[in-house]
Amino acid sequence: MTSDQETMRLLGRIADALDRLAPPPPRPTALDEADAFVWHSEPEGLEPVHKVNRVDVALLKGIERQRDTLLDNTRRFARGLSANNALLWGARGTGKSSLVKAVHAAINAEGAERLALVEIHREDIPSLPRLLAVLRPSRRRIVLFCDDLSFEAADESYKSLKAVLEGGVEGRPDNVVFYATSNRRHLMSREMIENERSTAIHPGEATEEKVSLSDRFGLWLGFHNLDQATFFAIIDGYAAAYGLSMPATRLHAEALEWSMTRGSRSGRVAWQFIQDLAGRLGQRLE
Fold it and tell me: Which residues pair with 38 in a beta bridge?
């Protein structure tokens, strides 16, 4: 065997080894494979979600105004009409992400053109322009959803989102609307805003770029802590929907005690109580 042949064999073995080490290319995902997807940036691709973790929109109590507003906006979008990006902000556990997923299901249940729901994680926001390049050619209309969105002082990834919402050369595709939830109305903490203003040469301009990001959402929907009557209405709705049999007086007393141990009344706390109650009653939540 000549030295050239030996060299070629060695190079072939090296190439085979590198192929085995390299991750396989992402499988192209057609947006008609499912109604919900999660975007992964490494490796890039859409992962179908065939069973979404959500509750029925009728079980979301105490947020009727927010529900109706988001339903109307999403319904117009599904029909091919103009619609706004939406920022759902407020206290933790008050139903922000639950509402987005419930509205998506409700609109699809109406029998119109089925929307796709695509979730992008907060840490993957820098890959947002590449995700939109994947979504833009699709004939489906898509709700792009980011849960718990916020930015820290040194975080520059908000610029990717800002260009997409408005102001970029391409901007948001016509077949995509962006919904985000956040605990912060301006997507950054008050302490961060005050700190940047106090240390800036031009305080008025220091935070303009970051604060203006929230202005690019056409809808601002605020969510707040529940009063006791609404909390009990949520508990009653869940108990009836899942067939959990318990006298109302006892049900409310146990739910109130549960909320006191958690230090708050919210939809999340109500759902956690219902899960505990179902377990104690030996029933499955299906």
Answer: 47, 119
Give the span between the Cα atoms of 56 and 76, in whole angstroms: 20
Q: What ranges in 79-174 are assigned the alpha helix state H?
A: 96-109, 128-135, 158-165
* Token pair listed for 199: 């240390």
Cα–Cα nearest to 216, from 154, 149, 136:
149
User: Alpha helices, DSSP H only, in 54-95?
Assistant: 64-78
Q: Give the number of other Cβ atoms within 10 Å of residue 91's Cβ.
A: 16
Tokens for 280, please give them.
């104690």
Is 157 in contact with 182 (CB distance < 8 Å)?
no
| Phi, psi of 226, deg, nearest 5 | -90, 150
* CA dist., res. 223 & res. 63, Å (int): 7
d(CA 224, CA 231): 12
Q: Which of 41-45, 77-81, 175-179, 209-213 has the lowest mean pLDDT?
A: 209-213
Phi, psi of 275 (to 5 degrees): -65, -40
Residue 250: both structure tokens together:
């006892």
Question: pTM higher than 0.85, yes or no?
Answer: no
pLDDT of residue 84: 94
CA distances from 35 to 38, 51, 72, 173 (A): 11, 9, 20, 19
Q: Comparing C-alpha atoms, which of 169, 122, 173 is closest to residue 145?
A: 122
User: Which of 47-51, 164-168, 239-243, 244-248 is least confident?
Assistant: 164-168
Q: What is the token pair recorded at 134?
A: 């994947």
Number of residues written out for the chain: 286
Residue with tokens 């990834």: 157
> Alpha-carbon distance 42 to 117, whole Å?
20
